[in-house]
Design a protein that fits this description.
Layout lengths: L30 H4 L10 E3 L5 H14 L2 E5 L5 H15 L3 H4 L13 E3 L14 E8 L16 H26 L6 H5 L6 E9 L11 E4 L5 E6 L5 E5 L2 E4 L7 E5 L1 H6 L9 E3 L7 E9 L5 E2 L17 E2 H9 L5
Parallel strand pairs: 1-2
Antiparallel strand pairs: 2-10, 3-4, 4-5, 5-12, 6-11, 7-10, 7-12, 8-9, 8-11, 13-14
Helix pairs in contact: 2-5, 3-5
């Protein structure tokens, strides 16, 4: 099957101190104007191996309520496995355009899986400075290897290895988040889909940009997932909206960045907060990130858990199938 050729950001000329107009964000979004420059609080960093379970639960619950995001260290995924994942992803995006398009998203696809360079459906038709690859990595029945690169040859093996380690981290996060709400440890994971939760890997590739002050890699949003587990490279760029300021996330080698997504906010009836975040780009360096979105299966009905609803706390969100929530979110329709 042949796919329409798309002009990617990586093929643009970077020798001019200018970028196409469609990449320039409105002033209220431009990083040079809106990034907080003062002394800002740092995103909580939490040791996931802390033997004091009560302390760990409290730290993660507090971060999820106040920030909607935190970083974890000593999470159990070997640094070598993370390095191999990053190396394989980097090699893929350095391939010639024709080779990347072998696993391109078909133009008529209703799924987001595949290689593409047009992530944002912005009402102003502004473009974001990013190329990306999406594909599911777990559970096995949900995987479509059509969208897994065969080049570099190591890609599939290292991605499978990463997914294997990721499962233990996912279970610990769901358990801890449940306990932090006063629930039994299994409740949140089961409510989000249990063993049918789909792990959607996305690789973001943000090439050098001549005017990083004017554009964004990804515009401000919350994730439609339950939880997002992200590995960045060493180039900063993730920003969090906190206390009316855009705050840059500190890079911690080998840490995982944990985002609370929309579905956990819904299940907790707003007790945990989905984090509003965006991505900036760099002038002379390539930024990359590897988020894994933990998503309920499409037919699963998600809504506020009954434990959090009473006469004083009515449901803050509608109950609906995840696929319907996704459709509304991606098409910017009311939920």
């Amino acid at each position: 099957m042949e796919f329409d050729r798309v002009q990617t950001i990586a093929s643009l000329s970077f020798d001019k101190e200018a970028i196409p107009l469609e990449f320039i964000r409105p002033e209220k979004e431009q990083p040079a104007i809106t990034t907080f420059r003062g002394l800002a609080p740092e995103i909580p960093a939490i040791d996931l191996s802390d033997p004091d379970q009560e302390k760990l639960v409290g730290l993660i619950a507090d971060a999820s309520k106040e920030w909607g995001i935190f970083q974890v260290i000593n999470h159990g995924i070997p640094s070598g496995v993370i390095a191999e994942l990053q190396g394989a992803g980097k090699k893929f995006f350095e391939l010639p355009q024709e080779e990347k398009e072998v696993c391109a998203r078909p133009p008529d696809s209703k799924s987001i899986e595949g290689y593409d360079s047009k992530l944002q459906k912005d009402p102003q038709e502004k473009k974001s400075w990013v190329d990306h690859l999406f594909h599911r990595i777990w559970p096995p029945p949900s995987i479509n290897y059509q969208f897994w690169p065969e080049n570099p040859p190591s890609y599939r093996e290292v991605t499978k290895e990463y997914a294997k380690y990721m499962r233990d981290v996912v279970d610990k996060l769901f358990t801890t988040l449940s306990l932090g709400l006063g629930l039994e440890g299994h409740v949140l994971k089961e409510a989000a889909g249990g063993e049918q939760i789909e792990y959607m890997l996305k690789i973001n590739y943000y090439p050098p940009c001549p005017r990083p002050d004017l554009t964004l890699g990804v515009v401000a949003h919350t994730d439609l997932s339950a939880i997002t587990i992200l590995v960045p490279n060493e180039v900063p760029g993730l920003q969090i909206f906190k206390d009316d300021h855009w705050i840059e996330a500190k890079y911690i080698p080998d840490a995982l960045i944990i985002h609370i997504g929309d579905q956990i906010e819904i299940l907790s009836n707003g007790k945990y907060k989905a984090v509003l975040h965006r991505t900036t780009v760099a002038k002379n360096r390539t930024r990359m990130s590897w988020p894994v979105f933990l998503e309920p299966p499409g037919e699963l009905v998600v809504g506020p858990l009954p434990q959090f609803i009473n006469k004083d706390n009515p449901p803050k969100f509608k109950t609906k199938k995840f696929k319907d929530y996704t459709y509304c979110k991606l098409n910017k329709l009311p939920q």
